[in-house]
Amino acid sequence: MSRAIYDIAIVGGGIAGCAAAIALAGGGRSAVMLAPPQDERDRFGEFLSPAANELLHKLGLAEAFRAGPHRPANATYTAWGSGSLVERNALMHVEGPGHVLDRPAFERLLRDAAERSGIAVLPKALDGAVHDGTMWSMQLVDGPEIAARFVLDCSGRTAVVARRYAVHRREDRLVAAGAFLRQRTDEVEPTPATLIEAVPEGWWYASLLPDRRLALVLFGDSDTLPRGLAHDTTAWRECVEATQYVRQWLDSAGFDSDVQPRLAGAATTWLDPVAGPGWAAAGDAAAAFNPLSSHGLTTALWGGRRAALAAVAALDGDAEPLESYAATVRRAVQDFLGQRQATYAREGRWPALPFWRRRHSR
Questions:
Q1: Mean pLDDT throughout 156-176?
Q2: β-pairing verdict for 202-208 and 145-153
Q3: pLDDT of residue 95
Q4: Beta partners for residue 216, in sequence order
Q5: How many CB atoms lie within 10 A of CB 14?
Q6: I want to staple 255 with a disulfide (CB 3.0 to 4.6 A). Which of 9, 170, 181, 277 is the partner?
Q7: What's the rounded mean pLDDT across residues 123-143?
Q8: Secondary structure (DSSP) of 162-188
Q9: pLDDT single digits (tens) 296-314
Q10: 106-130, pLDDT tens digit by residue?
Q11: Could you tell me whether strands 145-153 and 31-34 are parallel, antiparallel, or unpaired per DSSP bridges?
Q12: Pairing state of beta strands 202-208 and 194-199?
C-alpha cells in the first residue's frame, strides 16, 4: 500500500502546532498536522503577554482575536518580598495590554484557522518515527504510515520525536496544584485582576477569567506541597486559608474554594539543541518555562511560526534560519534562567525553607 508523503509533518495540534500550520499556509509546501482530539477539561495557563499582539497580526488572527471573549490584563497585584501588596498596571505598555484568555475559545480559534489553512489535519497520535537521513517514516496510532521530509515536534513537554535527538534538561521540580473556582452568588462583581502571592511553600497565582471564574493555582516543589493534595480537599482549604491576599479575594468576592484541585507539571525544561537535520521542536517541546515568566503561550505562538518558516527554508537548502531559531531559543533559555533567579532572590522571608533555599542557592 502506498503511503502519503509530505514535505512537513507537524506533531501536535496545540498552540505551537496550529501556529506552525497557519504559518505554512500558501507557502507551496505540502504539510500535515497530527492532532489527536484534546482533553476538553480546563487547563492551567491563560495569560497571553503583550508581545503576542504582533504575532497574532502576523498570523492573520488579530481581528478575530479582538472579537473576544478574552479580557485585557491591565491590573496585576503582587505580594512578593514583603507582606505589602503592590499594583502593576499595563495600560501604558508599548505593545498594548496582555490578555487573560478564554483558553478553550483561543484554542478553537487557532484550530479553526489551521484547518482552513489548507494543510491536511489527521486526528491521530504518533506511534513512532524513524529518520533515514532523508525521509521520516511515521507510524500513526490506529492509522496508516506516512512520510515527511521534515518534522516539527509540537507535542508539548513529552517532545515525542525531538527527545531522541537532543538532551532533555530540567531545572527544578515545580508542580502546579490548581482549580477553577465559581462564585457562590453573582451579586458581587469580582475584580478583573491577577494576583501573585509568595508563601512559605511556594507561591500562588490567581486570575479572573473572562467567564467570571477564578483560576487559582499553588506552585511548589513536588516534595514541599502537602502529600496527597490532589485528593485531599481539607489540605487544599488549609493551604488557601494560610494565605493573606488570596483568601481575602476569595472571601470578598464569594468564590467557593471547597473543590478538589488537580496537579500538573510546571518545571522549567528545555531541549539542547532544539533543532537538527530534518527536525525542529517548538512550544513546550523546545522549552517550557516556569510560569513566573508569563510568556509560555506567547512563546508557543512565536516558536511554532518561526520553526515552520525555518523548516521551509531548510527544505529549500538554506540552513541559516533553522540555526538562528535554535540559537534564539538557547539564548532565551539562558536569559530566562537569569531572570528567574533574580526574581526569586527578591523574596527573602523564608531562606531556610526548602522551596526558597533551593532557588537562592543557585
A1: 96
A2: unpaired
A3: 66
A4: 179, 206
A5: 22
A6: 181
A7: 95
A8: GGGTSEEEE---EEEEEEEE-BS-SSS
A9: 999 999 999 999 999 999 9
A10: 999 999 999 999 999 999 999 999 9
A11: unpaired
A12: antiparallel
Phi/psi-derived region of residue 26, left when phi > 0, alpha when psi is between -120 and 50, beta in every other case: left
Position 116: which residue type? R
Q: Which fold has domain 174-265?
A: D-Amino Acid Oxidase; Chain A, domain 2 (3.30.9)
Question: At which residue does the C-alpha cell 485531599 appear?
Answer: 232
Alpha carbon distance 287, 298 (integer Å)? 12
E-strand spans in 214-310?
214-221, 262-265, 269-272, 275-276, 279-281, 287-288
Cell of 53: 499582539
Residue for cell digits 509540537?
A: 154
Domain with CATH 3.50.50.60 in the chain: 4-42+102-170+268-341
CB contact at 8 A, 179 and 240: no
Kind of pairing, strands 4-11 and 31-34? parallel
pLDDT at 359: 94
Rg (CA), the chain: 21
User: CA-to-CA distance for 240 and 184, rounded, in angstroms?
Assistant: 17
Name which of 113, 71, 303, 39 is nearest 207 in CA terms: 71
The CATH number of 4-42+102-170+268-341 is 3.50.50.60
Alpha carbon dihedral 293, 294, 297, 299, in 10-degree steps, equals -40
User: What residues have CB less than 8 Å from 215, skipping those under 6 apart?
Assistant: 44, 46, 178, 180, 205, 206, 207, 208, 209
16's grid cell: 505551537
